[in-house]
Amino acid sequence: MKYVGMLVFLALVLINCTHQEPGSLYKANKSYNPDPVIDSIVPKTAIAGVSDITIYGKNFSEDNKKNCVYFKSTLIEPISSTPTELYVHVPDVKGDSVLVRVSTIGALNFSNSVYYRIDPAFIEYGNFGKNDNIKRIACDKNEVVYVLNGKSLVRVNTDQVQDTLCTISASVVSDMKIGGDYIYYVRKNNYLYKVSLNSGEEEKFVKAPIKIYSIAFGEDNIIYLGGRKSALVSMDLDTKEFVELYDYSDFYFFAMTVYEGYLYLVGLDYSSREYKIIKNKIIDKTTLGESELVLNWTQLVGNTDVTITDILFDGEGNLLISTDSEEAGMFVLSKDGIVNPLYGGLIPSAIIDMAPGNDKFLYGIKKTGADEEQRVLRIILPVGNAPIYGRYQ
Description:
By secondary structure, this protein is mainly β. It contains 2 helices and 32 strands. The longest helix is centred in the first third of the chain and has 16 residues, at 2-17.
């Protein structure tokens, strides 16, 4: 009897320790749709929260609601679906190898896994801190970024390592651009200054017939000079000869750029007290066409407290507009004449100056908060920047 009792006890222990498998979702008699398959994703990389991509494969549903696209653990419903294509807006998920999978209702398993690169729309760049006083920015043909930090002209290489090129004499700089092997800057007086990118030597280059507030390089080694209630002037960098191009005595210009045969200017129209973007056709080195209105910014935003700080063109001819708005620092004026916040307003802080990179990067100075802390941003432009005059002269 002792042995029988022992055997009963062991049997009970074995029964209680047996692993019970949970009920499976698989039903032996149920039919399932084929599992989805991802063949490729186009384009090869995307921008988080910005890009739309196409997932090519097979066995997807034609019903958007029956397709579940996962970026890591973030679930997105496609914008449109066919059995072989899913058109998807990329969520705000970033990484060099983001796991992408598709699940289709009616299929038993997930698709195969694909690792996909998703870049952030922008990053803080150059390791600047809250004690820095960043005023102006430029970028050379080697993607070295020059930042005016107080009076120090700081270089930031592509590894984001800083060194100081020189200390300039000016405490106020209203514009700064690269031309050839020099940085040219103006300080709201009659002089154009330049600093050698090689030696860091500063020079009071030339005296202009106007007080210069903004500059832009054009073709044929020409630099355009804009002022306040004065004529628009050009200068040949080789001969230092000035030409008065157009009477803008009612304007105060604080930004300008050249694009496809036109000089674009941003300024305050004193006659109407409105901020405007205008343009003049460049006829030749000494002649401009009539003034043409591009955008009445004041009428568009209805708020004179929000002003434009700079303008540039992207690689598709859209006009990038930076502003001092804390709600949306950058806007895009499309070739169709429509204005929208860049990337739907993902860049919320004021951008007080911009500089185009050489490929898909745009650099800007961000100003944020009550204490107006400044940082450098590197922003991705998928279509790149328009050609920049001056930088390769």
